[in-house]
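Tutorial handout. Part one gives the primary structure; part two gives the three-dimensional structure as tokens.
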Amino acid sequence: MRHSPHHVVTDPEVVRRLIDEHPWATLVSVNDGEPVASHYPVLLDDRDDDQLAVVTHVGRPDDQVHGFGPGNEMLFIFAGPSGYVSPSWYSPLGVRAPTWNFSVAHCYGVPEILDPDENVAVLTRLVARFEQHVDAPVYLDPELGAKLAPGTVGIRLPITRFVCKVKMSQDKDPQSQQQVLEALRRPGPYQHLALADDMERALAEDVSARR
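Part two.
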């Protein structure tokens, strides 16, 4: 990603929050010189340590497609809400160019293959995370987990480095920021309440960081 001082984030807790709130990830690797991408739900690792890491699984044969192995670095991309920002929403001050607000984290590491018991545990956690919000949750019992697991490969990715960008109009004047928020909350084709909430939080954190 292009480096933008106004939008770069180095705090791992922001990355942790982005992963937790938006756990659908793009998994990217290079195998035999060819770029490969897959998409899977991902959870923060719940081990009791300070290492930022995530766990997930891939369906066979995606493990071979990605070429998991020692030293083969992988990229996980996590993205929050994003949306178009019209220059008509800005005040007359400054540059009035169209843009896009978004938050994204590129997380790098070498995946570790989970053993069968760990894989079942991760599958169980994934189902529990998303089933808890439905009216009649159906959780993964041990017998079904044991049947499903052989068709998957569980992985843990210790995140050794990341690039995070939160672009939420932090470089605009206060009037423009307020007008963008109002436009994103106004009924119509560009209404995006989740993006407005993310933008409001990012602007508040930016003000707090500068104090």
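Part three, for discussion. The two ends are 28 Å apart (CA to CA). The domain at 8-198 is CATH 2.30.110.10 (Pnp Oxidase; Chain A).
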